[in-house]
Write a structure and sequence with these properties.
The protein folds into 4 domains: 98 residues, N Utilization Substance Protein A, Chain:P, domain 4, CATH 3.30.1480; 61 residues, OB fold (Dihydrolipoamide Acetyltransferase, E2P) (Beta Barrel); 76 residues, K homology (KH) domain (GMP Synthetase, Chain A, domain 3, 2-Layer Sandwich); 81 residues, DNA polymerase, domain 1, CATH 1.10.150. It is 49% helix and 20% strand. It has a 5-stranded mixed β-barrel with strand order 4-5-6-8-7. It has a 3-stranded antiparallel beta sheet with strand order 1-2-3. A hairpin with a 2-residue loop joins strand 4 and strand 5.
Length: 442
């Protein structure tokens, strides 16, 4: 390897592979050291340096200078494969650094293959994968289709870089908002919190730093055109725009819309918020399969429990009565616990012993006994609930079987009726009775 050849190789790799020249020089030096150690001994001290400007090599063997021609002759062939490997590693590391810096960012690619539910996506300089688990439920992809997703994970795999994309993470919705709504990209509107169940529903809490800009209206757009573009990209996923408020009570009310909230009671020790609604708002607040309250809880960071005022009164009476029956517990302490939001034996079984000791002026032994009783009763209540669910499932099975039997019986009756009608057709209107001669006699 002469100096000009070294400089040519470094420059070509730098331009073709977009790898820093210093990384290539270091790789060649390392390769030459490896080659010379194979020629001499692994235990010998070998050092090789390349001048970054001239390409001249200078080597030392156990402190003594090595002739550059010897370095080139001995190391050239052996170093070739090592250099190739080092360059591949450097290229991999450069790709890794490039894509690792984009984790959470949105990227656009073209579907190259779609097999077994897994999409291979061609990006600018690497193939990425979009696993089935990171695809929006119900959506399918096709080769040559352009797809948008966020970079979810980047990892080194041998001499290659594996990039995993996602369309299910909350960041994907956030990036779509930033792309479709200029006020967010400009920083006038800020996304304060998000909660998402991919393919079904998302809640996005926003606020505006400019009182003249309505954060909710700006996100929805004229005639809903902005939010429609986002919903279309998310395969019809419903998007709730929530107006952010630093007052948690107001925020929870906003997050549960379109349900109307009467009051919010905070149980600080449990991190729980009891939300009171009217009877006609109960199912709306909870949402289909609990989706509305579940997403509101994620958005606000509090465990939200929805109930009517009558249900709360019933729970309070039941909790006070139940707690008062525990050994070592009086009604005054039971009331204190309920005021802090402890409404069931299950809640009581996870209380911090120090908190219970302070609230009731109890000893450690008394607290342990109370918690032990609460755990036992919580298990009993769970068993009763399981039995009730089992009986309910059995009842539903019987009702379903009965309905099926009635349906089959009705079908058999209809079939029998059809056979009877076929065997005894009604007389044709206007026909002469059998045996009567038509016309005049001879």
């Amino acid at each position: 390897m002469n100096p000009s050849e070294i400089l040519r190789i470094v420059d070509a790799i730098h331009r073709d592979k977009n790898i820093d020249k210093e990384i290539v020089f270091t790789a060649i030096e390392s390769a030459l050291v490896s080659a010379m150690k194979k020629h001499y001994s692994e235990t010998d001290e070998i050092d090789v340096k390349i001048d970054r400007t001239s390409g001249e090599m200078q080597g030392f063997h156990n402190g003594a200078p090595l002739d550059a021609d010897i370095v080139g002759r001995v190391g050239a062939q052996t170093a070739k494969q090592v250099i190739i490997q080092k360059i591949r590693e450097a290229e991999r590391d450069a790709l890794y650094d490039e894509y690792e810096a984009t984790i959470g960012d949105m990227i656009t690619g073209v579907i190259h293959r779609y097999e077994g539910g897994v999409a291979t996506v061609q990006l600018a300089n690497v193939e990425a994968i979009l696993p089935r688990s990171e695809q929006i439920p119900g959506e399918t992809h096709h080769p040559n289709e352009r797809v948008r997703a966020t970079v979810f994970e980047v990892r080194k795999q041998g001499s290659r870089v594996k990039v995993v994309l996602s369309r299910t993470r909350p960041q994907f919705v956030q990036r779509l908002f930033e792309q479709e709504i200029p006020e967010i990209a400009e920083g006038v509107i800020e996304i304060k919190a998000m909660a998402r169940e991919p393919g079904y529903r998302s809640k996005v809490a926003v606020s505006s730093s400019d009182s003249r800009v309505d954060c909710v209206g700006a996100c929805v757009g004229v005639r809903g055109n902005r939010i429609k573009n986002i919903v279309d990209e998310l395969a019809g996923e419903r998007i709730d725009i929530v107006r952010w408020n630093d007052d948690l009570k107001v925020l929870i009310g906003n997050a549960l819309q379109p349900a109307e909230v009467e009051d919010v009671i905070f149980c600080q020790m449990l991190g729980r918020a009891i939300v009171l609604v009217r009877e006609d708002q109960l199912s709306l607040a909870i949402g289909r399969r609990g989706q509305n309250v579940r997403l509101a809880s994620k958005l606000c960071g509090w465990d939200i429990e929805i109930m009517t005022r009558e249900e709360l009164d019933e729970q309070i009476d039941r909790a006070v009565g139940g707690f008062s029956q525990l050994e070592g517990m009086d009604e005054a302490l039971a009331l204190k616990l309920v005021e802090e939001g402890y409404m069931s034996y299950d809640d009581l079984s996870i209380i911090e012993p120090s908190d219970l000791m302070a609230m009731g002026n109890l000893t450690e032994e008394q607290v342990d006994r109370i918690v032990e009783q609460a755990e036992e009763r919580a298990l009993e209540a769970e068993q009763i609930e399981q039995d009730q669910r089992r009986k309910q499932r059995e009842l539903e099975r019987i009702e379903k079987a009965t309905a099926e039997a009635h349906r089959l019986e009705a079908e058999r009756d209809a079939a029998r009726q059809a056979l009877l009608e076929a065997a005894n057709p009604p007389p044709i209107e206007g026909a002469s009775p059998e045996g009567e001669a038509g016309g005049n006699s001879a």
